[in-house]
Amino acid sequence: MGATQTRFEHDHQDLVEKTGFSVEQIQNLHKRFQQLSGNEETISREHLKSIPALANNPIRMQIIEAFFDKRNQHGNELGSYEEIGFEEFLMVMSHFRPPTLRTTTEEKEAMRKEKVRFLFNMHDTDGDGKITLAEYRKVVEELLSKSGTIEQEAARAIADAAMLEVASTNVPNMGPDDFYEGITFEHFEQILKDLEMESRMHIRFLDVNTTKVHCGK
């Protein structure tokens, strides 16, 4: 057992450094990855679609796509994977890692920026660096219309009004005939500046044993 543990620590030390997870957390997430993949080396979108806890989530597809978005590998590469291995899976999960008592103020700020960037990428589906009205509409419509309490047209009207408010706030001198191209990352950061991220960005459906990474309220 001790030799196996030592070998695991040695084999995954680079992942500890890349993600900030402990060896124990990586072990637990590896177990969950194996459960999802059926002990295969990669997982596909279909594997994540089969998770019961995701079935009724209004942004289920955005969450799933986030795992295959190359931008969420802590790099600038655009595009998406057809399937991902454990390292890619772990890199995505690291966006949900909460700070510890030893996390410095600078590290906390960097982690928060990564979380905001992750959320921005979920909305900026075409990777052009802006959340357009069409992209914003799609998310708002799914969030509101699928709740069963509001019609799709009403949800669209709410999305349009919200985007107009964002535009007027971010571009105060915009004329009535000016076209607002969309929410930039800087605008998005400003919108979320008062939102507490640590307790909100978690993934419950990935729970396994002692893993402390969650999603939901």
Unreliable runs: 208-217
Overall, the morphology is globular
Structural class: mainly alpha
Question: What would CATH call the architecture of the largest domain?
Answer: Orthogonal Bundle
- In N-to-C order, the SSE pattern is HHHEHHEHHHHH
Q: Tell me the name of the CATH homologous superfamily of the largest domain.
A: EF-hand
Bin the strand percentage: under 5%
The amount of helix comes to 40-55%
Computed over alpha carbons, the radius of gyration is: 19 Å
Would you tell me the overall average pLDDT? 80
Quote the distance from N terminus to C terminus.
Answer: 37 Å
Summed up, the helix count is 10
Number of structurally distinct domains: 2
How many β-strand runs? 2
* Main sheet characteristics: 2 strands, antiparallel
Strand order of the largest sheet: 1-2
Please write the CATH class name of the largest domain: Mainly Alpha
Q: What's the CATH topology name of the largest domain?
A: Recoverin, domain 1
Main location: other
Organism: Crenichthys baileyi (White River springfish)
Subcellular location: Cell projection, Lamellipodium; Cell projection, Ruffle membrane; Cytoplasm; Membrane
Pfam families: EF-hand_6
Describe this structure in words.
This protein is mostly helical. The protein folds into 2 domains: 2-97 and 202-206, Recoverin, domain 1; 99-198, EF-hand (Recoverin, domain 1, Orthogonal Bundle). 52% of the residues lie in helices and 3% in strands. It has a two-stranded antiparallel ribbon. The longest helix is centred in the middle third of the chain and has 19 residues, at 105-123. It comes from Crenichthys baileyi (White River springfish). Residues 111-146 form the EF-hand domain. Belongs to the calcineurin regulatory subunit family. CHP subfamily.
